Amino acid sequence: MFAKNIQTGGFCLDINPELLNIELSDFLDNDLLFNQPFSGVLSTQLGTSLNNFSNAFSICDFKQNAVNIIHDFKEDLLGFHREMNIIGDAVQCITKKVNTQKSLISKLFKAREYIHRYYTNKITLNTLAEISGISKFHFARVFKNCFTMAPLEMQEQLRMEKAKELILKDHISLTSIAYQLGYTDLALFSKRFKKYYKISPSQYIK
After folding, report:
1. pLDDT value for 1
2. pLDDT tens-digit map of 10-31
3. Which DSSP symbol is given to 169?
4. CB 115 within 8 A of CB 167
5. Is 134 exposed, middle or buried (0-12, 13-18, 19+ CB in 10 A)?
6. Where are the beta strands (DSSP E) in 77-158?
7. Vertex 144 angle, CA 139 and 25, to 5°
8. In whole angstroms, what separates CA 51 from the centre of its chain?
9. Which of 71, 66, 64, 62 is nearest to 21 (CA)?
10. 147 vs 84: CA distance, rounded Å
11. Which residue among 16, 91, 122, 201 is the one 20 to 30 A from 172 at the CA level?
């Protein structure tokens, strides 16, 4: 049910794995996928797709594109399932209690979502540890174990991906891009870009 001019606060999905043609045993046995509160609107493809769907589609759109929507949703769900399996393996090395694993994942997703939302700002480990409710001593190690990169590496990745997108827009100068992404000057931005992509931003334009 959709209502105009009302922001969607969340989704409750009643998933029929048979409809999505997903391997039932593996999917339903993943305890981390169910009864698990977390935020992933910006930091997961599934969350981004559902958010876009809620903001852009009407009942009429759904009827006309139902097959494609269900197919895309299936692929996003499978991708999220694979990610949760990887994260699940990581948290099992930290704790064997499922409830503790769920709590830890929820806290880590909260920090990852914060990075995706505010990656153009200065982010510190102290801030992320406080947001997640995990001690600073453990936060960085646990985050990297679960997401395969350190928090500030994730921030840099997001900045660099956005940089490539902005560079392709002819009307935006490199200096403007540098400031938009939170760098203090063009020289620092160029240095980081070249380190990441092995090519300078001015060369990438060409």
Report:
1. 44
2. 556 666 666 656 665 566 667 7
3. S
4. no
5. buried
6. none
7. 110
8. 12
9. 71
10. 10
11. 122
Query: Is the CB of residue 114 less than 8 Å from the CB of residue 40?
Result: no
Q: Are 123 and 155 in contact (CB under 8 A)?
A: yes
In contact, 80 and 119? CB cutoff 8 Å: no
Residue 7 located in a structural domain: no
Q: Say whether both 118 and 65 belong to one domain.
A: yes
CA dihedral (83, 45, 196, 187) positive or negative:
negative
Residue type at 201 in one-letter notation: P
Helix/strand number for the chain, H first, E second: 11, 0
Domain range for residue 56?
17-148
180 CB-near residues (< 8 Å, 6+ apart): 120, 166, 172
If asked whether residues 27 and 107 sit together in one domain, one would say: yes
pLDDT of residue 199: 94
Per-block mean pLDDT, blocks of 10 residues, the chain (206 long):
55 61 63 72 83 62 66 81 87 88 91 97 96 92 94 97 90 92 95 94 83
**CATH code assigned at 169:** 1.10.10.60
- Distance in angstroms (rounded) separating the CA atoms of residues 67 and 185: 48
Distance CA 136, CA 139 (A): 5
Query: Considering the domain boundaries, does residue 12 fall inside one?
Result: no
pLDDT at 175: 94
Instruction: Please state the three-class secondary structure of 130-154 as a single string.
Output: HHHCCCHHHHHHHHHHHHCCCHHHH
Q: Residues 109, 200: one domain?
A: no
pTM listed for this prediction: 0.82
